[in-house]
């Protein structure tokens, strides 16, 4: 569906270019609006591409990770590296898009800008299909739908909520179940071992442990929302900061404010090889763990870096506001504040490094810790953190705007950025990140990793 969506985008842009040329000639260089059908077709293409990405992103990454044998120690190490290099490739593509495709779209043609990705996507699909005979596929161990199975575990446990714990213990003894560490959490789900009202519908310990595995993800998923609330600020507030600052490299060369975002992707591309080839082997020698550090330790490291980035962003913005006051630019929002845009690089770079820890760690965590039949759903859960985090960020901004604006006073997000207070907002985000990080540490400390041979 992705190639079709990009193809439709190419057609919508190509039709617009043809129509615009006709309008300019016919109307003596007076531009005219595109027809309604063309606008509908363009937005249909965008929504089609979004739907394609919803199916493509979690499934393709899960399929790639499935190619590694979990019973082979060497392949387990390689699987951890797979998530690193997956994100390395994505960030490399983002850098190319920011510099090459943006230039083509601005200076040559939007149709060409959409056409090139369409051709590349078609070639990638052909290459992917050529390897069909060599791929590994998971064999479904249970005929029942995993969603239905896990849902029925919760339903059975709810029906048996009055069951005496002694009856559960007798059932476990009858099945010869040995206690292991994970079984001590969410003991109420063990009530699903018994058939409610003598219906004969009961579940095995393995099926109950699957439900527990999904439930254990909820606190981690929830506490990571504070981390992703920061990310919508990168293409919005960070960019708006850059617009007001001096981005000149030479008297005739100026970096576009939006291009400063590329420094985040560059940080990912530069740091992933360092992490994978240098830091992981060192950590592996110290901890004796194949991945060097645990997935939750990796996620937590990125969470702390995200907090640090917001603190630094607040101080940089405070300095920008002071500079605007010193040069008498407070009521001249269109004037460039004589402060180098390079001051923004630390917050971009630290967030890029945080990506290497947290985003890659979350991908591996949600893939590894769900039942075998729900790998792509696990990665969809990872992606849902960013979707809901974006909504929460928008809600937070609207609440802050409402609380800080009023008659005779400028809000924290005033149109005149020299009278706004992004520094306060960044520090508010830092406080929320700190609270979320503390909650995450509590959840991570009590988290019990799944044993792959049981799920």
What attributes does this structure have?
mainly alpha, 3 domains, two-stranded parallel sheet, 4 strands, 2% strand
Could you write a compact summary of the structure shown?
Pfam families: PTR2 (PF00854). This protein has helices at residues 2-26, 36-65, 73-107, 110-130, 146-159, 165-174, 205-223, 225-228, 234-243, 262-287, 295-326, 345-368, 375-404, 422-446, and strands at 245-246, 248-250, 253-254, 337-340.
Describe the model.
The chain has 455 residues and is an all-alpha fold. It has three domains: 1-137, no CATH class; 146-203, no CATH class; 216-446, Up-down Bundle (Growth Hormone, Chain: A). 67% of the residues lie in helices and 2% in strands. The protein has helices at 2-26, 36-65, 73-107, 110-130, 146-159, 165-174, 205-223, 225-228, 234-243, 262-287, 295-326, 345-368, 375-404, 422-446, and strands spanning 245-246, 248-250, 253-254, 337-340. The strands form two sheets. It has a two-stranded parallel sheet with strand order 1-4. A hairpin with a 2-residue loop joins β2 and β3. α1 runs antiparallel to α2. Mean pLDDT is 82; it is low at 178-182.
Describe the SSE topology.
Elements: H1 2-26, H2 36-65, H3 73-107, H4 110-130, H5 146-159, H6 165-174, H7 205-223, H8 225-228, H9 234-243, E1 245-246, E2 248-250, E3 253-254, H10 262-287, H11 295-326, E4 337-340, H12 345-368, H13 375-404, H14 422-446
